[in-house]
Amino acid sequence: MCIFHLMDMEWQWEFCQDHAFMDCVSSVVPRELDVQQLLHDTEEKLKLNACCIEQSLRELQGTLGDTRAGDQMKPVSTGHQDLLDFLRALQQYLRTEEDGREDAALLTLLSISSRCGVAFPSFQQRMAPCFPVHAVRDEAALDVQEAWEDIRVLLRRHLLEKLHSADDVVDGDRGAEGCIRMARRVRRFEQLLFLYPETEVLSRYQNLQVKFVQDLLRGTQPCSFERLADRLRTAAPTLCSTIAADLHTLRCVVEPNTLIAFINQGYLNTISQELLVLIEECCENAVKDTSTHTSKPGKRSCTKAKAQGSAREASQRGVSGCLTSQQLSCLAKICSTLLELDEQMELLVTKLPFLACPGAPCSVRGILKKTREVSEMPAGNGNRYTDMLLQQNPEPVVLEFDWRSAFRELVSPVAHCLKAVLEDACSRSRQQEETDTVISVILLPQRDWALPSSLESQAPKMIAKFCGDILKEFDVLLPLALLCRDDPLLEVRSTFVEVCSYVASAVVGRLEERAREVPSTAPLRNLPALLASSLHIQQWLGHIQHQLRDGGRVPLSLLPIQRCQELTEALQDQLTQYCIQTCATSIFQDAEAHHWGDTKPFYEGERCSFSIQMWHYFLTGLRRDLWAMLPPWVAQKVLAEILSGTLEVLACRYSQACPTYKRSQQIRVDITAVLLVVEQLVWSVSSSLEELLQPSRTVCPWIFSIHSLCNQLLAVLVLVTAPLSELHRFCQGGSGGISSATTAADSEARGVSWLTAIRPALFPPEPLRSSTVTSNEFTTKHLLKLMSSQPDCDHKLLLQSLLDADCILLRVLLDNSYFCIDDSRNDPDSHKHGDAFMEAVFSVLLPLNNIPGALTLVLKNYFDKRRLWDFLYNMTAEEGPARSAVLRCVRAALSKAVLSIVSHLIAMVLDHQAWEDLATFLPSQGLPESVLSKVPKEWRYVAPNARGRQASKGHDELMIQALSFVFAILPSAIASLPLPLRFLFCTGEKRVSQHAEQLKRTGLLIWGLVSCLCQDLEEGGRLTLDHRAADKLALVIECLQSAMGNQRGGANPVVQKVLQKLEESRPNWTVMQLQKARKLCAGGVLESVQAGVAPGRGGSPELTEQKIGLMLLEVCHQPGGSENLRQIYHIIRLNEDLLKAQLEASRGQSDAPQRMVDFSLASDPRPPDFNPLTCFQHIGLKEFSQSAISEWNWDWAQLLPAYLGMSPLTLGTLLANRWELQEEAALEDEEKTLVDHLQNVYFKTSLGS
């Protein structure tokens, strides 16, 4: 055995790498100024790191030069007996039961090696003819080698057990705990490499992990498909975390190619081989079970009978050919788990940039490109093959996961049984459905696949039960088709596509048959269910096509997507046309009410026609059915088309009516009721204020048509039923004496003028004439009503409502809750739900960099009333208001920004402590004197003392390094914070004037950020640290606080010394870094970004639909973004009456009663189930009052000027329908005079001529 004695140079810890290449990543899109700051900081860190490396190299060269000039490189002769005595003493000590003996022995060997220059061999040494210059020759080294080998084995066993323990497994998290565990694992691998060569270390560790994987996949009970699926599902997370841990650990000690080869052989290849063995065992057990069951008399399933032919053929090859539906489902679960594991490997590779080297693509190769001999290497030759692979690696390799090869022998039986099972499921579901007259519907089950975000509004809510049952079977077995994407396995995919096409065509055909049954033998409610089912099948086929797109040799054109689209369009057209026809031929057939020539009044003119009331009832019930089944967008389109079609019928009928004097009131009451009903429904069919108030003929033709038809009906009401005296007054002077300017102005607003006429308080005429809807001061109330009228929560509309008018909805909710009002009830549950609402609001507004003032606008009144601004200065307080939900959110946002800094500082301290243990290791603390006394004298190993001076120097260097790192990354940390949070602190800085002197240098945000950093360091990153690491972190905290001007108590000499050294090495550097950070959070920078929200109150640009969409993406990309929006929507719907009252009170229309906001999540804000009696007597939430409609007070002074400017032909036609202009009309003298004047103006004739 040769011990190399190189030099007697004591190791000193020098932390020269001052600037870690790490940045705080922003969770939102950064501004240009932030990007520039990040790029500048990165460039500066690169330059500083380069200078640091050059300095380290110069110091190392100087140190080597000094030792080379001395006499310490002379050969040293170590006595054979002395060496043997030391090794046997160490060997005997390792065989004791003393705790920590292995760690003490390792530290002693490392200390001897570093201080005395003794190189212990890490390989099985053989006698060579020549030796190195400084080698200690020993001709009788067999006993020494045996002792050293035994020591190595004991230490290796200890290190491998520690590496394999569950406490050391990490999954690559970026937290402090993950960094510390990874550093511990790296250190243990380095200790192994001190004892053994790299190939042997990896080989032995690989054997250990191979056994771990085998034990994880194997069980104690006989293997079956069901047990294997459950076992694999349970083992998958552990496999992912273990592979991730080894990838992140071994990349620090081995080359990338060697690492990937290790992962391939240790994990991926082992999983593939084990999977092959286990599936073969499952097939054998399945064959045994099948033979056992078939020997007994009993009824056989249709599926088994269809698959029996393939069973005999496959059984001859030793593979189970009679797979049951349950076995196929279990196989599909196995494939699904393996596909997810495959995706995890792909994701893991993309997160490891060190693999993206030239020639080494970042990918996972699904089919192993190796020879058959290599893939079938016997288990006994595994070690030799691994050593050969790890040593050679002539070419870069990729991760190779060949788990699909385990299914090759199952291709034929799976293909045959797959077809039988799916066809049987389709047949059974159709047979059950054929017996029902009314289609059974079910809520759409939770799908394993999701539609693109742009198509979420097109997802149906309920579908036909038989469709759901059939598609569920396909979804369960879809992983089998996804598995088979390569040539040897394509038969399964081809069979799946073929059966899918056949079954989908059959289902579509059945839907067509059921559609033809309406209305002869099936009710109308079947049509929405059929339409929803057709839409779901169409989306499902698109999903199948997308999933199987990589199988180029499988023709996906067989899928009946086009036929399904045609069926969807046909069903939608059938539904709308049937409803319109039903209204025209049945509901509107009201002979008694529409007998316009009757000289008797209809119910004394005090109620509308029964047909109008039934039409309202029919549309309201239809809306409920559409809302419950169809996608929101489709439901709105269908209802809008039906509403437009029925209005067209009504407009045609009433425009042709020539009533008698007694029946004129009937037309007025009917049209008034129609307009009230349409006003209630038009909110439901509009998805935005633009569609409601400024509809486009091309974008939303049905809404445009609804407005046009309502204006026609209103024209009939005005020109046919207006009092003759009012009509004559506005007709004087020809053309009614109306100025052209007034007519032109009114004609511009003619599109929605009927809304102003029927609801003047809700739709004032002046705002409607504005070119932009968002400039309307009433938009908040409009948005609130529009949002509550939608079929479901519309995220875009909700976000627009929240931001409108300086976030008035959110401010009203907070101002009328326990946040701003003292609640005498003191209900803990209510407060808990309120805190959850506050957290949701904070999470939604925080990422909105385009509107940085929104968060401050919402919280400003709350912060003022509860005096919370001071707590932004003292973020570490834990009592009183500091525990409020919003301050917890602010604290969490700041902690997220400093999380990587805390992790890095803790890892830095622990790394320094580990090397300090090696440099200042006192053997008296570990090894007994009986071992230390055996250390050979030639090594000149002297047990060191505490070496307080060098330890103090190391502490100073650590503190300087930590401070340099914090101040270097501080601007990046500020830039990573969202602008709304920066704006909140910028506003708060003006409110905490009592701390102005302390904040003059740093500002409130930097002060709060460093305070959070110090608190997290004090907590040790929520890790359990020993007192030495805690003391170092406490010293770092004290240095940071002193540097920020927050020194507590008397001056600490150590802190002053550290700050002085840092200032001497970099004059004014900390001040410049603070100025950079302050520039990013100061108010002057944010003034360029408008703080207001609504136009006219903050000067911000208009919130267009595109900008709202971009902000919605930012919100939904945050964790829990969609859930937060839905929670806010729930609270708004729950408190809709309170919001309406407060909005009216803010405009001075009424005094809102003092009410508390209900934050209960258990309450249901949706309207109750459809009640026919209630619906019949109400229009929306208001009562369908016949007397109120008959006495409706129309503003003829506003209406007549607008409609007398119509085209002469239309005007003359409608005026001719007035009862006064009929030949048999009995007129008084005064009336006759007025009629003559009308005819002279519009008809150029006289009644008496």
TrEMBL record:
InterPro entries: DUF4495 (IPR027993). It comes from the Eukaryota. It holds the Pfam family DUF4495. This is KIAA0825.
